[in-house]
């Protein structure tokens, strides 16, 4: 027979709710680990007194009773597992696993039996229901009635808050059955009563959650938070963990108390009690107990008179009363030397502490994540800047936590810590791990942009050389945008029509020549490149070498038919998804084979590009340039005809034919938008000029035109 038995997805009944976890039975005892809180219940084999197997709502359940009266209930077993459990109990615990069924008659009268911390309502020999007395928050009595009130359970969808028992009167003298019932309940109930004096009191402590300043009164079984508006009573049994965390400024300390169940303020639940202390604040403390009681109760962990830092005194007293160790940061040290990392969570800035067995974030909202509940972590780009990154944690239950705005200098330390803890990193690279991917990511965007600009500059140089070659061969200027200072008067006069029309004398020509360079430079820089650049991108040489395919595309082309044959009728989308899954699952050695093929294809492409840039590219570019030149000439001729028609209608007869032929024609982008307005303004100016210049003498205008 095996020495251990393990069961997954077992539910433990605690205060009316079912908490899932893992149950392990061994020779030493029974261990249950709560999946939600990580709390471990350990029952020694020597403490077990009785084991009961019974049918419950979730299948079958196991109830264990200990010698000191505690009851533990575990549900979620299958009926077939009874024999295995029964044999294990006989062999290792020397107990008979008894089978007892619950009574389902539906009667509401019976007998109440108190056993340990359990109230059992029985009909005959069969129990109807059981109430753990630790769930009782208050017990009140009436004439023949006892009322039990229960703690509210936030994890349960429906909570039972009150049960009333009618106790019939008896003929026995001197014994009140109602009072006897109530005393049995109160002796085991979790009723908080501030009887007697507090052991010690800490005045005006700064509390972050719940926010405010509170007096903390320490009682033997609970602590009492007394504030100006709210009071809280926290039993020590609800304290799950204690944390003592140094602030990043090294001048303050956080003391964090993890609670389960949480304390409530209206509809708000506080799972963590966070106190903030200054390291410089000291206190002298005297316990409200004599020295013998202190020694007997705390066994040297506390003394009657103590002094020291306030945070040390609070943490020391809490550790002794709760009987739990205090968790402090481990050996992690950030970039600035602090034991925490500044980050943001849910739009609030705080501190993330990497611990030896988990992460804790303070303070709003506080979050504690254990390593054993983490599925994987992820290092992601910052959403707004490359100066920071995001640290994502996803738990096995599917909950995701994103800690953003972490300085990129913290990456190395955090990655080494996560790697040392052997947590699964989702975006780990192939060879260098996350470091390689982060090195590329950590660089600013300017580096990648510079590389892109360098490539564009090279392409621009090649286009400019080709343009010069084509202009030398044809004897005409075709690329005005690349040589703005060496152009003829055509382009400038295209936009100087208003200026030329305003002067009818020969002096106007010299003035117009002085204005040409400024307007010509503006036209070339602002408007011409915008038209030419998209044209160069649109023209693609069919003779140019094709870009090489990646390793994945090479593999996909070779494997496409095989995937189709293995999955008949598969769609293109599903085929792509299936190929991605196969590629992801492929071994590293097979991927390296395709990487080598892709590298060979890239070398061949670079070689072909060199040959193409030397020979074939210049010839093909000249051919394309000549085609563009013909199209441009056709547009110019069309624009010239339209301009002549407009000029004849505007009475500009003083212009010589030579000037009309030397005047440039508008390109397409100016003809459509500016033609009508420029023509109208030209017409008005010419009419005014004619009215002013024709009456005095026609000989002067004729001589001016000569």
From TrEMBL:
GO terms for biological process: DNA repair; DNA replication; regulation of chromatin organization. Residues 651-661 have a biased composition (Polar residues). Residues 517-531 have a biased composition (Basic residues). Residues 474-496 have a biased composition (Acidic residues). Residues 545-613 bind DNA. GO terms for molecular function: DNA binding; histone binding; nucleosome binding. It is found in: Nucleus, Nucleolus; Nucleus; Chromosome. Residues 497-507, 691-706 have a biased composition (Low complexity). Residues 532-544, 634-645 have a biased composition (Basic and acidic residues). One of its GO terms (cellular component) is nucleolus. Residues 545-613 form the HMG box domain. Keywords: Chromosome, DNA damage, DNA repair, DNA replication, DNA-binding, Nucleus, Transcription, Transcription regulation. Residues 458-551, 609-706 are annotated as: Disordered. Component of the FACT complex, a general chromatin factor that acts to reorganize nucleosomes. The FACT complex is involved in multiple processes that require DNA as a template such as mRNA elongation, DNA replication and DNA repair. During transcription elongation the FACT complex acts as a histone chaperone that both destabilizes and restores nucleosomal structure. Belongs to the SSRP1 family. This is FACT complex subunit SSRP1. The gene is Ssrp1.
